[in-house]
Amino acid sequence: QITLKESGPTVVKPTQTLTLTCSFSGFSVLTIGEGVGWVRQPPGKALEWLGFIFWDDDKRYRPFLKNRLAITKGTSRHQVVLTMTNVEPADTATYFCAHRRTGDAFDVWGPGTLVTVSS
Amino acid sequence: QSVLTQPPSVSAAPGQKVTISCSGSGSNIGNNYVSWYQQLPGTAPKLLIYDNDKRPSGIPDRFSGSKSGTSATLGIAGLQTGDEADYYCAAWDNSLNSGVVFGGGTKLAVL
């Protein structure tokens, strides 16, 4: 059974760097074919894909955020880290990590963590 | 403005069937798989349909998906009050700004 959970700060000041960790069980990010994605949802708005990281360390990012985003493997094979630099109030959102299955679908999601960017 | 277009809302009575459309283009729906998600209030999205028309284990067959050209449709039969939620379609987009694109979401009301 796959489970995921996001963790990190709930409030970040503008221009600071946001770091979120996705901790999961039931699979390893080092196993061939596996991938983890990040999706965010501003309050009252639609889902917005941020990026993927794959077992072979290949990465894909949302084009308009590419210069501010980094997704890396964590200290264990059961962690992935999202880093977003120079945050602004428009980055206020619930951030989800999710297990990617074939066809670029997300079949298991974490509960999400609300991050507020405010001074 | 989302790349995939969904109606903002749909409604139907309990027991009836409703369909939710998702319109895209050749760079996304036309050449890639579509997935559908259900998001109940205050919760994470849940995968309902992947690869256009496949249901993950545990998803009842009341939920169905189809794709034709650059559009996709989610069908929900035998509506229940517990189906009231936001529904999102998604697909990979092969354009210059490639990545996963989501629809703007459709709020389903079961009246």
Task: List descriptors.
heterodimer, A: 119 residues, mainly beta, 7-stranded mixed beta sheet, 4-stranded antiparallel beta sheet, B: 111 residues, 6-stranded mixed beta sheet, 45% strand
Your description of this structure?
The complex is a heterodimer of chains A (119) and B (111). With 119 residues, chain A is mainly beta. Chain A has no helices and 11 strands. Chain A has strands at 3-7, 11-12, 18-25, 35-41, 48-54, 59-61, 69-73, 79-84, 93-101, 105-109, 113-117. In chain A, the strands form 2 sheets. In chain A, strands 2, 4, 5, 6, 9, 10 and 11 form a 7-stranded mixed sheet that branches. In chain A, 36% of the residues are buried. With 111 residues, chain B is mainly β. Chain B has no helices and 9 strands. In chain B, strand 3 (34-39) and strand 4 form a beta hairpin. The A-B interface holds A 37, 39, 46-49, 51-52, 60-64, 96, 101-112 and B 2, 32-33, 35, 37, 39, 43-47, 50-51, 56, 88, 90-92, 96-105.
Concise overview:
The complex is a heterodimer of chains A (119) and B (111). By secondary structure, chain A is mainly beta. Chain A has strands spanning 3-7, 11-12, 18-25, 35-41, 48-54, 59-61, 69-73, 79-84, 93-101, 105-109, 113-117.
